[in-house]
C-alpha cells in the first residue's frame, strides 16, 4: 500500500532480447560474410630464419628443416599443430588441373 507523498515505484519494463540460438545464427552469418570461416594458412609467429621444425616429407618421413628452408624449398604444403602443441609442416605434391595449381597432401 502506498501513501500520499511517497514516490510510486516505476512500472516494470520488460525487454526481450535475442535468444542464444538467434545470437548464434547472427554470429554465423557475420562470420560467413567477413570470411572468418575460410581456411587460411597459419605460420608460426616470431620464428627465426634458422629455427627448425619437423617437416613431413613427400615420402612420409619426418625431418627437421629450418624456417627458411620450409618457406623457400618445401612449398606447396601447410602448417599443422600437433596434439602436444608444437607446429609442423606437411609437404604436398603440386598438381595442375584446368590451368590452376592445387595441392594434394601426401
Q: How would you describe this structure to a colleague?
A:
- By secondary structure, this protein is of the alpha+beta class.
- Helix content is 21%, strand content 30%.
- The protein is built from 2 helices and 5 strands.
- The chain has helices at residues 20-34, 67-73, and strands at residues 52-56, 62-66, 77-81, 87-97, 100-105.
- Strands 1, 2, 3, 4 and 5 form a 5-stranded mixed beta sheet that branches.
- The mean pLDDT is 84.
Write the layout of secondary structure elements.
Blueprint: H1 20-34, E1 52-56, E2 62-66, H2 67-73, E3 77-81, E4 87-97, E5 100-105
Parallel strand pairs: 1-4
Antiparallel strand pairs: 1-2, 3-4, 4-5
Instruction: Report the uncertain regions.
Output: none
Assembly context of the chains: single chain
Tell me the fraction of residues in β-strands, as a range. 25-35%
Elements, N to C (H/E): HEEHEEE
Q: How many H/I helical runs?
A: 2
Overall average residue pLDDT: 84
The percentage helix is 10-25%
Q: What is the overall shape? A: elongated
Number of strands: 5
Radius of gyration: 27 Å
| N- to C-terminal distance | 80 Å
What class do helices, strands and sheet pairing give? alpha+beta
Main beta sheet? 5 strands, mixed
Quick description:
By secondary structure, the chain is α+β, with helices and mostly antiparallel strands.
List key phrases describing it.
106 residues, alpha+beta, five-stranded mixed β-sheet
